[in-house]
Amino acid sequence: MNIKKFVLSYYSNATEDFHINEITKPHEALSPHSHDYYQIYYIKAGRLIHHIDGVSAELKARDVFIIPPNLAHYVEVASKEICFYSISFTRDYIAEIVRSNKLAADFVHCITDLPSEGVEPALTLRVEDASLADVLVQKIMQEFSSDITGKDQIIKSSLSLLISIFARAYLEDGCENVRFVSEREAITHCIGYIKNHLREPVTLQEIAQRTAMSKSSFCENFRRVTGETFHHYLNRERVEAAADLIRAGKSVFEAAMESGYSDPSTFYRNFKKHFGVSPGEYK
Asked: What number does CATH give the domain 4-177?
């Protein structure tokens, strides 16, 4: 099968990492294709059938689907008239959103780092969420086509909230219900989760529950896959993240807090054990 590959520069008015437009004639999307960016379709009117990885779903007004980079899919028009918004962005564009928005981080992890079976072909928003999504999409459209001061900040703030709305629908019915086909896949999922939640309390019990394993079984599989114990891995990730923050100019205290340490003495001990010098000496 011939699968077309699109890039953002295909759109004449796209920026380097973002684009939004209203579509009534989706010619390019009717055949199998993929793209090197994330894409959201938000249906305004009419009906579409979305096909992805052998699974199909019909979308109507206020339904949505989200596609990560490099995943082949296509749509077919299922009504006489159709109108939807296409929102496209790179991972770099939403990096700041992901860092500051836990819900968005979980969502991006689910659709990017899990197998394609974890990507839902359609999501249905709650009525109240759909009303807000309508407003946000219109605001993003308005700002994108303007030259108003601060447009980029308004677009990103609106997009962060919009992704949160979609993420809630997705996580309620998508990622949390993924069944892993192997222990290795489950551990890989947990590694991504840990990286996205370093600054939060992450416990062995919570992580094990995400895989439906007992704590002892999880620890055994984690060590077999990573070569490290869970706690050693978590501490290493945290002190290395703290070191990155210190190099970026953060104070030792800020680096400790932002990498998940609430106890300075524990941070100091783990940091020195890993790097051989204290955080202050490292700075």
From this structure: 2.60.120.280
- Fold category of 183-282 in CATH: Arc Repressor Mutant, subunit A (1.10.10)
pLDDT digits (tens, 9 = 90+) for 146-174: 999 999 999 999 999 999 998 888 776 55
**CA gap 82, 29 in Å, rounded:** 13
3-state secondary structure (DSSP) of residue 123: strand
* Percentage, residues of the chain above pLDDT 90: 40
Element (DSSP H or E) covering residue 85? strand 83-89
Whole-structure pTM over 0.70, yes or no?
no
pLDDT for 160-214, tens place per residue? 999 999 888 877 655 544 556 578 878 887 888 788 778 777 888 878 877 777 7
d(CA 132, CA 135): 5
Dig out the tokens for 191 from the structure: 């590694």
With beta carbons less than 8 A apart as the criterion, state whether 20 and 141 touch. yes
In the chain, where are the structural domains located? 4-177, 183-282
Strand partners, 124: 63
